[in-house]
């Protein structure tokens, strides 16, 4: 992966398209000294940021330095007359300024000050040392370090279990076990007869790659995105797959070709130890879909879902390997494989600390890597459908038309996916998918308390005489918008998205938004009754009711089966401890079942929530009959190991899993396209392409909360149901780590299948039988000894 970026830099030195350029809004008493100290701590913490790259005899060579100085220039924009223009000019220059790969650190920063409490930090890194996920890691860690320095109590970040170099060694180990041959076979078959896919350009293509770019965007109405989600669930696909299908059908029509090939990126962080490691894990894959003979949207969706699943199952194959397999005709004016790219993103939100608020704001485009790069960006107030396009090739109206055509098509088919695909010329429906804010001015009621507090902030940003005008009509710009948002968030202590702000651009409308944001909200978890009947003690499962539907039926008609899920706002709050998250679930449990005994069940990470909820219920003198962990390792198992022990456990797990997969392949029990399923360790779903990014983000957040939580032993009954298809053996605890926590009765049962299929077919029958047997024994024995936390 790094070799690809190194070669790309050699072919086009100073290629700004290889830069990652971000802008962070900082609200708080930060100084250049504090910012510099925090960033230098990050450089010291992450080995990859102290790495340089030079040409060696056999290719690029990495040089890791013990230290790497990062100077942070500071500029007070109050000294300049045209702040808005200067801010954009400086941001663009920083985004496009090249790096020298032979000099570390390959990251730079500049602090732009607007007031004593308001600053912007421009952060730019080369792709050879980071990816988008990495920048989110740096944002969170930077805010934590800065906050501690401001408060006079330096923060201590948890030790990193591995560095990027450890990941590289692990990749090599997997390669030595023959991973490449299996994946090569998939891509060789999938891309046989490859022909480049492109959309006709508005301007002649220059003889060499150009990078000048712009971004255009449309805010989609919630009704459309909700309809896409319903269709996805009904068809077993994902929201992204549904939206991607609409776009690919539009591209198919524009190109007049059924064989559609685009690129996409996957995060590449298949292991929990890599969640907080900075480095270029992202990998580019080919999505090739043949739409020949497709008559309706449902058929098209099925084909795109198959394409995505195959790509994800072989997602560890490097782009360089795919290029070697395809051997495309090289053209200096084009990307080696793709002219078009499509991705799904979650916009970086904010980090709120005691002394600092860090917020990600839209950045300057560093440069185009593709002719067209479409992306779906999720924000709190909705989704944006955007495209970064090469301005030397396309006019903005051409790109907007493609976005609108996609939304028009989806609007016409999502209510009935079996309906024939509509003609794309009829684009009037796109207007229904675009949020069109109203800017009609009405008199401002200054007697209103929210308006009274809002007006000074508004006037300080836009000047006097702007009270009844819309924000943009009154001379507002992107920079002033984020300054006003920051002031509103400080004054009213609310969370305000830029989309929500621009959709309500007057003082009156904005006051309504603030009023609703500060109103009491439903803070309670919700409980779904998957099986409401019966007089026996209910089973209460954690999260994802879809996962437990079959199990609830097979447990028996005499035992209710409930599922508790968190309120939406509980997810992702960095101020919440793991105990507070579990307490939120306990509130929902208590509402659904005021008195014990309680039977709590979790799968994978849900078993950690069930365990902590049981501890809290016991401390509250409630009766907990049993905690059931379905193929979930005990919380904190690796954290209680030394770094060497954790490495041996992880390495053994991966290699044993790989050997099991190879054995199944040789016996004809495992399709080649599913050979790499062993790499999905984190999420308990049979189809990883069905896991939306929001769920992945939530699991990572919960893991981070758990890493800071003390794990106490438990004296009650614990039932662990292990998946027989998961690795056992060298360095791996056969009790999945529960023996060291269980001071009471611990029962271990087995069920066929693996971590992802344990709730399917024959496997779920065994899980249900194990649960029934344990509960029958407990109930026949009468009241168990009370558990102690």
Automatic annotation (TrEMBL):
One of its GO terms (biological process) is amino acid activation for nonribosomal peptide biosynthetic process. The keyword Cytoplasm does not apply. Keywords: Phosphopantetheine, Phosphoprotein. SUPFAM superfamilies: ACP-like, alpha/beta-Hydrolases, CoA-dependent acyltransferases. Residues 441-518 form the Carrier domain. GO terms for cellular component: cytosol; enterobactin synthetase complex. One of its GO terms (molecular function) is phosphopantetheine binding. The keyword Oxidoreductase does not apply. This is Carrier domain-containing protein. It comes from Methylobacterium tardum.
């Amino acid at each position: 992966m790094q070799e690809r970026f190194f070669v790309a830099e050699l072919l086009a030195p100073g290629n700004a398209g290889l830069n990652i350029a971000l802008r962070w809004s900082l609200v708080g008493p930060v100084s250049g000294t504090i910012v510099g100290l925090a960033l230098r701590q990050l450089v010291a913490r992450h080995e990859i940021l102290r790495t340089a790259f030079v040409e060696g005899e056999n290719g690029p060579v990495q040089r890791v330095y013990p230290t790497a100085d990062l100077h942070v220039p500071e500029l007070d924009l109050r000294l300049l007359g045209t702040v808005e223009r200067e801010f954009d000019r400086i941001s663009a220059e920083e985004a496009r300024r090249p790096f020298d790969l032979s000099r570390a650190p390959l990251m730079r920063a500049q602090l732009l000050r607007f007031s004593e409490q308001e600053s912007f930090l421009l952060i730019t890194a080369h792709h050879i040392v980071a990816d988008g996920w990495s920048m989110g890691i740096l944002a969170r860690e930077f805010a934590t370090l800065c906050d501690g320095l401001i408060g006079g109590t330096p923060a201590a970040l948890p030790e990193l279990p591995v560095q990027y170099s450890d990941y590289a060694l692990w990749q090599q180990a997997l390669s030595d076990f023959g991973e490449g041959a299996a994946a090569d076979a998939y891509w060789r078959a999938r891309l046989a007869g490859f022909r480049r896919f492109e959309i006709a350009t508005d301007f002649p293509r220059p003889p060499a790659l150009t990078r000048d770019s712009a971004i255009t965007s449309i805010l989609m109405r919630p009704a459309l995105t909700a309809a896409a989600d319903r269709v996805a669930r009904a068809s077993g696909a994902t929201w992204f797959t549904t939206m991607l299908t609409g776009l690919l059908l539009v591209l198919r029509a524009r190109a007049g070709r059924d064989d559609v090939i685009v690129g996409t990126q996957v995060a590449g962080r298949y292991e929990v130890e890599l969640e907080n490691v900075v480095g270029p894990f992202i990998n580019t894959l080919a999505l090739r879909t043949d739409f020949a003979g497709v008559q309706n949207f449902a058929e098209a969706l099925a084909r795109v879902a198959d394409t995505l699943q195959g790509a994800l199952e072989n997602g560890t194959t490097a782009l360089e390997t795919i290029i070697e397999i395809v051997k495309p005709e090289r053209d200096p004016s084009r990307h080696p494989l793709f002219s078009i790219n499509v991705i799904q993103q979650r916009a970086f939100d904010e980090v709120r600390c005691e002394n600092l608020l860090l917020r990600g704001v839209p950045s300057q485009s560093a440069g185009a890597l593709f002719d067209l790069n479409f992306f779906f960006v999720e924000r709190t107030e909705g989704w944006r459908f955007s495209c970064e396009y090469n301005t030397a090739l396309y006019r903005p109206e051409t790109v907007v038309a493609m976005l609108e055509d996609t939304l028009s098509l989806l609007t016409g088919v999502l209510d009935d996916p079996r309906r024939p695909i509509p003609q794309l010329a009829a684009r009037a429906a796109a207007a229904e998918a675009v949020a069109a804010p109203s800017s009609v001015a009405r008199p401002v009621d200054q007697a209103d308390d929210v308006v009274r507090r809002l007006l000074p902030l508004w006037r300080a940003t836009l000047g006097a005489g702007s009270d009844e005008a819309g924000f943009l009509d009154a001379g507002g710009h992107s920079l002033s918008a984020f300054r006003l948002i920051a002031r509103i968030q400080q004054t009213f202590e609310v969370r305000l998205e830029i989309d929500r702000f621009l959709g309500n651009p007057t003082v009156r409308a904005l006051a309504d938004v603030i009023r609703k944001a500060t109103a009491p909200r439903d803070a309670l978890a919700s409980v779904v009754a998957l099986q409401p009947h019966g007089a026996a003690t209910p089973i209460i499962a954690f999260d994802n009711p879809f996962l437990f539907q079959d199990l609830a039926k097979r447990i028996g008609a005499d035992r209710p089966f409930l599922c508790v899920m968190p309120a939406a706002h509980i997810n992702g709050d960095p101020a919440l401890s793991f105990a507070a998250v579990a307490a939120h679930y306990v509130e929902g449990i208590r509402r659904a079942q005021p008195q014990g005994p309680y039977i709590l069940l979790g799968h994978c990470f849900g078993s950690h929530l069930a365990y902590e909820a049981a501890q809290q219920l016991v401390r509250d003198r409630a009766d907990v009959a049993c905690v059931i962990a379905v193929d979930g390792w005990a919380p904190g198992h690796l954290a209680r190991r030394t770094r060497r022990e954790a490495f041996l456990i992880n390495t053994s797990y991966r290699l044993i899993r790989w050997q099991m997969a190879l054995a199944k392949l040789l016996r004809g029990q495992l399709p080649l396209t599913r050979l790499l399923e062993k790499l999905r360790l984190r999420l308990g779903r049979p189809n990883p392409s069905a896991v939306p990014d929001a769920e992945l983000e939530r699991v990572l957040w919960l893991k981070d909360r758990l890493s800071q939580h003390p794990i106490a032993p438990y004296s009650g009954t614990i039932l662990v149901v292990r998946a027989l298809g998961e690795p056992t053996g060298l360095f791996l605890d056969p009790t999945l780590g529960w023996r060291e926590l269980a001071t009471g009765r611990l029962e271990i049962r087995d069920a066929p299948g693996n971590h992802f299929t344990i709730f399917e077919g024959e496997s779920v029958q065994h899980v249900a039988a194990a649960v029934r047997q344990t509960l029958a024994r407990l109930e026949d024995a009468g009241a168990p000894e009370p558990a102690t936390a």
